[in-house]
């Protein structure tokens, strides 16, 4: 089954009524002709609708003045749907959409609830966010582009006649929705290890070009959470590291890269998930620092991303006890309005984390929707009951528990962002896997490789090698074998110097004490328990990361990275200053 978390690319928008007119590396996909409803590119057919011109805020305000309560309520909802096509789904997906919203297709869901957004989702076993993603509706770039074009067509038929906001969690690393056919970035922690914001910006610009080409308008990235010094907790390699100032530079660079490609960046998880131990999918995690420590440790990356103009901030289901004890930030006016809007001066779109997560289901869907809006959120992500959420908003308008001014403020921000995003022409699919993208990401991967113990010059192993890994690391193992062979290293099926690969979720039992080299392809904490003479971190299992690793093992490249978290008593790097 395929679910549609469609935040369709703010493609093209003909306006009405004289309005002044969001892990392995696949092969590049071929570019099909531009599809109807997609953002225009320089080679788009003459019949393609034109990108809306004029001031985004002015046209947003004009549209909001003529929308009904039902239209306004729909604009703040961003659910998922089932099916890999907007209009053509199989019986199983149609049945699932009937249960979700009483319709057969994603396009019908948009029409019925007058939706402002949809989010694209996928389910994988190793994804830490999989609990909220019951299915998959993204397969490859061509399919996603066709899907998002169909979703945009449905959105343009609504009274708002505005683009759909199409979102996706394309963080890379452990949370990556589309892997087939795209240039796969490493995890955020690899960027922290490289410590070079200029490479971060270039890599995220490349990613933004590919995301935009697929028709996605908002990427729910970067993760702006700062980890505790040892990197513990549930966020792990999704974070840039444990240094708030370094993270602030990385977040700012990622925002610049994404948004220069026409994709709105979403900072998450405000007010900071890195110093927590619980998983907000299951319970309400506690942020226990006093306010001064929280402002020093957790706020800097959010502040830097906001100053760079990030279009979106995602509220976390987190208990910031020093500001509003016992209240999830999603539902806290003190956090979402007084801190985010007042202290940090954020003027963009505040979106909730998934409303189908346990802390957000404390109340019925309609009441939770009103509470989240009143706290200061503008868009509600993945409500567990779309109809109940919409009806709750309408009831709130009637009984006064939700002021119309608050709702129109939210919709104005949403439309403004959608029109602003639509001003950047949509790239062709040929941007995906392009030489420029490969070059930008390759440079970052090479800068991230970290030797925590072992040689700093020459080959890391003498003579022939063999590569082993747990069974679920076979793709990475094969990619490393090929990369080593291309680098001139003799690789055997067994014997020689053993290179042991481990990754996300692996434990002490997955290590091999007889190996010559242990490589961690995720957060490097497990290396503190490894006894092998050489310890290396790549923070990623992507094909390009394995290529960068092979160059270091072969002695053809240095390992310039430094671990962005403490790894037991090991140095951050045995080689880099």
UniProtKB/TrEMBL annotation:
One of its GO terms (biological process) is peptidoglycan turnover. One of its GO terms (molecular function) is beta-N-acetylhexosaminidase activity. The keyword Hydrolase applies. It catalyses: Hydrolysis of terminal non-reducing N-acetyl-D-hexosamine residues in N-acetyl-beta-D-hexosaminides. Residues 27-58 are annotated as: Disordered. Residues 106-417 form the Glycoside hydrolase family 3 N-terminal domain. It comes from the Bacteria. It holds the Pfam family Glyco_hydro_3. Its EC number is 3.2.1.52. Belongs to the glycosyl hydrolase 3 family. This is beta-N-acetylhexosaminidase. It comes from Actinoplanes philippinensis. The lineage of its organism: Bacteria, Bacillati, Actinomycetota, Actinomycetes, Micromonosporales.
């Amino acid at each position: 089954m395929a679910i549609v978390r469609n935040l369709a690319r703010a493609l093209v928008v003909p306006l009405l009524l004289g309005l002044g007119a969001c892990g392995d590396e696949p092969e590049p996909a071929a570019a099909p002709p531009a599809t109807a409803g997609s953002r225009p590119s320089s080679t788009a057919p003459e019949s393609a609708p034109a990108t809306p011109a004029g001031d985004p805020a002015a046209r947003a305000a004009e549209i909001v003045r003529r929308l009904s309560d039902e239209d306004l309520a729909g604009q703040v909802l961003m659910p998922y749907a089932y099916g890999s096509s907007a209009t053509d789904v199989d019986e199983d997906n149609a049945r699932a959409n009937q249960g979700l919203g009483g319709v057969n297709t994603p396009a019908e869901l948009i029409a019925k609830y007058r939706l402002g957004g949809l989010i694209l989702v996928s389910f994988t076993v190793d994804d830490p966010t999989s609990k909220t993603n019951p299915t998959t509706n993204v397969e490859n770039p061509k399919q996603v582009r066709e899907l998002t074009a169909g979703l945009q067509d449905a959105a343009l038929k609504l009274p708002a006649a505005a683009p759909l906001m199409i979102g996706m969690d394309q963080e890379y690393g452990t949370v990556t929705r589309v892997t087939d056919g795209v240039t796969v970035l490493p995890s955020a922690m690899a960027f922290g290890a490289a410590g070079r914001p200029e490479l971060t910006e270039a890599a995220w610009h490349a990613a933004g070009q590919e995301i935009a080409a697929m028709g996605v308008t908002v990427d729910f990235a970067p993760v702006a959470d700062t980890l505790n010094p040892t990197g513990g907790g549930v966020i792990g390699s999704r974070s840039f590291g444990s240094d708030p100032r370094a993270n602030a530079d990385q977040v700012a660079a990622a925002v610049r890269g994404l948004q220069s490609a026409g994709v709105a960046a979403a900072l998450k998880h405000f007010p900071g998930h890195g110093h927590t131990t619980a998983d907000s999918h299951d319970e309400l995690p506690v942020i226990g620092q006093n306010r001064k420590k929280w402002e020093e440790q957790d706020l800097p990356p959010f502040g830097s991303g906001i100053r760079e103009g990030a279009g979106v901030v995602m509220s976390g289901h987190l208990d910031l006890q020093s500001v509003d004890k016992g209240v999830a930030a999603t539902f806290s006016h003190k956090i979402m309005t007084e801190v985010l809007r007042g202290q940090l001066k954020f003027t963009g779109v505040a979106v909730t984390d998934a409303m189908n997560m346990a802390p957000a289901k404390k109340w019925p869907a309609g009441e939770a929707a009103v509470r989240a809006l009143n706290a200061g959120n503008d868009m509600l992500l993945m409500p567990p009951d779309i109809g109940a959420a919409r009806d709750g908003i309408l009831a709130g308008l009637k009984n006064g528990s939700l002021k119309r001014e608050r709702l129109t403020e939210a919709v104005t921000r949403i439309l403004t962002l959608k029109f602003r995003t639509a001003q950047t022409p949509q790239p062709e699919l040929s941007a995906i896997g392009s030489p420029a993208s490969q070059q930008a990401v390759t440079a970052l991967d090479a800068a991230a490789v970290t030797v925590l113990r072992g040689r700093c010059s020459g080959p890391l192993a003498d003579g022939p090698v063999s590569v082993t890994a747990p069974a679920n690391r076979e793709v990475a193992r094969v990619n490393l074998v090929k990369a080593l062979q291309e680098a001139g290293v003799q690789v055997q099926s067994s014997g020689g110097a053993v290179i042991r690969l481990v990754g996300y979720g692996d434990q002490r039992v997955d290590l091999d004490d007889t190996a010559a080299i242990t490589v961690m392809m995720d957060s490097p904490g497990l290396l503190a328990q490894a006894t092998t003479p050489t310890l290396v971190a790549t923070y990623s299992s992507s094909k390009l990361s394995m290529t960068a690793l092979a160059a270091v093992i072969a002695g053809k490249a240095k390992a310039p990275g430094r671990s962005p978290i403490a790894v037991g008593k090991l140095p951050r790097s045995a080689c880099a200053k």
